[in-house]
Every structure is written in structure tokens, then in C-alpha cells.
Amino acid sequence: MTSAPAPALVPADYDPLKDKGEFMNPTMAAFFRQKLKDWRAELLRESQETIAETLQTTELQKPDIADRASAETDHALELRARDRERKLIAKINAAIARIDSGEYGYCEETGEPIAIARLLARPVATLSIEAQERHERMEKTQRDD
């Protein structure tokens, strides 16, 4: 089993949009790896804060039924948000694994490079804009049936 190459160091002023080198070269891959790791760390930190500050200290047993309903709704919204973040963290981990395997930045459907601007906006993207639009059109037509 071969190990992945050591990640390249990313200069502080690096901009992947201005990189004229090969698509997803080691510096670009390292840039996106760090972006994904930073995003994951932020989500985990926010999750820990929510657990410590909101979910553990919220008293759901209120004497007033309206207060109880409001507290339960707030609690459910927090849990739903944490679940979305949990799923997003799984996507981030999968994106990092794709960087490790050399597949990151390439459309899963066509194999073509995904636009750098799209990856900057949505680092966990697995489809090019064109492929994503096709999927959305297909979903829309299947829902209309």
C-alpha cells in the first residue's frame, strides 16, 4: 500500500483562480484540503457550543404550555441544524478522501474538471455545474409525474 504524497505548503496569498499550472496540482489540492479541514473544524466547534450552551441547558419542562411548545420547537430546530451539519461533515470527509485519492475536483458523472469557482463556492461539489443542472432537471421532471 502506498501512502499519499505529503501535502504541499500553500502560500498565504495563494489564489486557485489565478493558478495557471495543472488542474488540481499539489498546491491547489493542499489549498482545498485546508479549506475543507477549516470548514469541518468550524462546524465541529459550533456543534460543541450548541451542545454545551443550548441543548444541555434548555429546560423543556415549562409550566406554561405555550412556553413548552416554543422551547420544544427551538430544540427541534437545533437538532435538525446539527443533523444537517453532521451530513455536511460526512461530505467534507468524503471530499478530503477524494483529495487523497486524486479524484477531487473532477465530476463524478463526466470525469471533467469542476470549475475552480464552483469548488471555491461549494468545496464538497462532486458534479460540474452542467451535470448538476441535468440532475436537477431530471429530479424536477420525475417529481412532476
How does this structure look, described?
With 145 residues, this protein is mainly α. The protein folds into two domains: 23-104, DksA, coiled-coil domain (Four Helix Bundle (Hemerythrin (Met), subunit A), Up-down Bundle), CATH 1.20.120; 106-145, no CATH class. The protein contains four helices and no strands. The protein has helices spanning 26-55, 65-101, 116-121, 129-144. The radius of gyration is 20 Å and the shape is flat. The model has no long low-confidence stretch (mean pLDDT 87).
Please provide a brief summary of the model.
The chain has four helices and no strands. It is an all-alpha fold and 145 residues long.
Name a few traits of the molecule.
145 residues, Four Helix Bundle (Hemerythrin (Met), subunit A), 2 domains, mainly alpha
